Amino acid sequence: MPETTISKLSETIFRNVKVVDSYLKANNLPPPSFDVDGPAVMEVGPDGAHVEDAKNKAIAAAMELVDLLVGPFPSLRPLYNGTSLQAISKWKVAQKVPIHGQVSFDDLGKQVGVHPIDLRRVLRYAMCHHRLFCEPREGFVAHTLASRKLAEDPMLADGLWLLSEHTHQAQCRTVEALEKWQDQEPTHTAVSIMAGKEVTLYDLLQSNPEHASKFVNAMTSFAKYNSRSPNLPKFLHSNAGPFKNLGKVTVVDVGGSRGMDAIMIAKISPDPNFIVQDLPPMIQGAEAALPPDLRDRIKFEAYNFFTPQTTVADVYIIKQCFHNWPDHYCVRIIKNQIPAMRPGTKIMVIDSLVPPPGNMSLMAERSARAYDMMMLTQTNGREREAEDWKNIFRQADERFKIVGMTSLGYPLDVPPIGLIEVVWEC
C-alpha cells in the first residue's frame, strides 16, 4: 500500500523539527515556549538560515496535516471570534495582570468594570485560541509569553488596538460594502460603513489625535516585530545586491515612516544619502532617534505622496505603501513622482509579489490571502502579482520600464515580498 499523505506530512514535520531541536540543543538556546519568561522568537544565529527554513516547512506541513485530520466540516462552522481581542485591548486587561503573579477573575472584573463571569468567558476563549493569558489555578489569571509582551510594550498594544477596533469589527460589514459600492474607492469600504460616512481609514484615524498617535505606534510595531530571528538577514537584504551597490546617490524613501529601512540600507551601503518622507505625525521626532553615526546621511521630510514630488533624487524607494491602495490610486502615486524624475531615475518598489495559486507553500498563500482580505475590508487595496505591477506602471506612463522583479522571500508574518525595479526612460 502506498504511503499516505498524512504519513508523509508527519515525516516532514518530524524531520524538520529535529533540525530545529538539534540546533537549539547544540547552541544551548531555549526551545519555544508559552511560558511567561520564554523566548519571544527563536533566536538562531547568523548560521541558522537552514533552521528558519526547517521551522517554516514544519509549520506548513502541520497546517496541512491538521486540515486533513479534522476534515471539511470545521471549515463550514468556523469558531473564530474577535470579541476577546477587542475586549482585551479596550479594557487593557494585560496591563492589569501582574507579570509574575495572579489575579482572580472577581478582582479583575472589578478593575475593568465587567461581570466576572463574562470576563472569564472572554479570557478563557483567548487562552485557548490565542495563547493569551492562562489559568494556573481555577478562578485566577496569569500571563503567558504573548500577554506579557502585550502588557510591556505599548506599540504591541496599539497594534492590537488597530486590528481589533478597525479590522475585526469591520470584517462582518465587508460583503455589505461590496454590494453597496463597486468602484474600489478607499472611501467605500467596510470601515466606511462602520464609521457611518464615506471616509478613508487613514483620514478617520488622523481626525483623532490620540488615534493618530496609536496608528503610528501600530505601524511601527508591525514593522519591528515578526517571528524571524533578528540575527538573520532582514528580508529586505535577502537579495541585497541592488541596495549594496547604489553608489553615491540620493535616495528618497517615500512613505518611509520612522526610517527603519533607510537605516538598514545605510548600514550595508556606505555611499548613498537618504531622505525619508512621510506625513508629519509619522516623522515627528524620528531624526532625533537616528543612530548618531547616520545622522549626517539620513534626513526627514514631510510629504504626502498624493501631491507632486518636488525632491529630486536618483532612487525612490516605496515600500509596502501600494498594497494599502486600489490600483487607480497607485497610478496616481507613481504619476506624482514624475515631476522630479530625470532620465535613468529608478523607482524601487518593495511590496507584495504574490505567485499564482499553487506556486507557494500553504503558509505563504494563507498569509497572502489573509492580508488581501484585510486590505479589502480596510482600504480597498490588495496584494498583487507580477502582471498587476506591469499594468499599474503601464497605466502610469509608458516611459516606465520594469527591469527586474525579484522575490525577497516568504516571511511567516506577511505575504510574499518582492522587489520591483523600474527605470524612468524619457
Automatic annotation (TrEMBL):
Q: Which PROSITE patterns match?
A: SAM_OMT_II
Quote the SUPFAM superfamilies the UniProt record gives.
S-adenosyl-L-methionine-dependent methyltransferases
Is Magnesium a UniProt keyword of this protein? no
Instruction: Using the record's annotation, list all stretches that form the O-methyltransferase C-terminal domain.
Output: 201-396
Superkingdom of origin: Eukaryota
What GO biological process term is on the record, naming one?
A: methylation
**UniProt-listed InterPro entries:** COMT-like (IPR016461), COMT_C (IPR001077), SAM-dependent_MTases_sf (IPR029063), WH-like_DNA-bd_sf (IPR036388)
> What are the UniProt keywords, alphabetically?
Methyltransferase, S-adenosyl-L-methionine, Transferase
Specify the protein name. Answer: S-adenosyl-L-methionine-dependent methyltransferase
State the organism named in the record.
Rhypophila decipiens
